[in-house]
Amino acid sequence: MIDGWTWDETLFAGTAAYYERGRLPYAPGLADALAGVLRLDGRGRLLDVGCGPGTLALLLAHRFEEVAGVDPDAGMIAAARRAAKAAEVAGRSTWLRIRAEQLPAGLGTFTVATFGQSFHWMDRDLVAATVRGMLRPGGALVHVSDLKPDLKPGDGPNPKEDPRPAEGLPHPPVPDAAIGELVRRYLGPVRRAGRGLLAAGTPGNESAVLARAGFAGPERVVVPGGLVLERTVDDVVAGVFSMSFSAPHLFGPGRAAFEADLRRLLARASAAGRFSVRQPATEVFVWRPVGVP
Predict the structure, then answer these.
(1) Angle at 241 between CA 164 and CA 154, to 5 degrees
(2) For a Cys-Cys bond, which of 6, 85, 97, 122 suits 90, CB 3.0-4.6 Å?
(3) In this structure, what DSSP letter does residue 273 have?
(4) 213/125 Cα distance (integer angstroms)
């Protein structure tokens, strides 16, 4: 687990309602790219670990006979079930509110196990070893995430913020750095995570963890993004409240004041109330169990 931090069930409490509107979609072509590298043919079973509201699992559902998603947040599982019903795959999908550390949970074996930007919240050694034992011969563990810009120090006020995303586009960029400063003004300088703090951020070195668990790889696939997306003020506000470090409950009685300040900040940044962003590329790492044909 993360040094100095203990998981608790409030980590993503209240964020599920903001995911669909607030989070940027994965790059177009992700499902086709995964179908190619994994040789998906509409058969087999998919396990999505830390499934959230079902975003990744439902994107891939038509590539499998069955899908299962697990997540510890009740709001996320409820949202995933609603989305599965709307997508007409409820009859061949299973959604369980459990932590990844509680797997295998009687779910059986799977062709593919996916982690959509969720692995860092888990007891990674335990979960990786457990998932390896749940994969069928020829199966794979797949980590999916946005591909962050490769910026040099000094390129922008926020190391994850590209200062050039709106060049030549119709609207200003989302003022991410200013939003981050506003969040810190309300919640303090150290990143919040549930009831705890992440003084050193989330862990890296995923490759070493998966190698210890008996995986070989990875095979890396980048699915191009680049589509120009328009974001409204409501979209940006939803994006802020969809994040674990700025989940609605963290603001307590100051939530309304924070949102009012956030909306004023956004109004100053764009008189039209519209922002332009480029959809990020999606990065995929495919890991396969060692010694399993």
Answers:
(1) 30
(2) 85
(3) S
(4) 7
| pLDDT range class, residue 2, cuts 50, 70, 90 | confident
Secondary structure (3-state) at 44: coil
Read off φ and ψ for residue 199, nearest 5 degrees: -65, -35
Q: What is the DSSP letter of 14?
A: T
Smallest CA-to-CA distance from 275 within 217, 222, 239, 235 is with: 235
Across 130-143, average pLDDT: 97
Q: What's the full length of the chain, in residues?
A: 293
Q: Which H or E run includes 67? A: strand 66-71
Number of other CB atoms surrounding residue 204 within 10 Å: 9
Determine how many CB atoms are found less than 10 A away from the CB of residue 232: 16
- pLDDT 10s digits, 269-285: 999 999 999 999 999 99
For the entire predicted model, the pTM comes to 0.91
Give one DSSP letter per residue of 101-127, joined into a string.
GGTTTT---EEEEEEES-GGGS-HHHH
Q: Locate 254 and state its tokens.
A: 């100051």
What gap in Å lies between CA 281 and CA 224, rounded to an integer? 5
Write the CB contacts of 200 (distance below 8 Å, at least 6 apart in sequence): 2, 3, 4
CA dihedral 32, 47, 209, 212 (to 10 degrees): -110
Q: What share of the chain is helix, strand, coil (3-state, %, to 5)?
A: 40, 25, 40
Instruction: Tokens 């549930």: give the residue.
Output: 194
**Three-state SS for 285?**
strand
Quickly list DSSP for 207-229: HHHHHHTTEEEEEEEEE----EE
In sequence order, the β-bridge partners of residue 57 are none
Residue 103: closest CA among 76, 130, 121, 82: 130
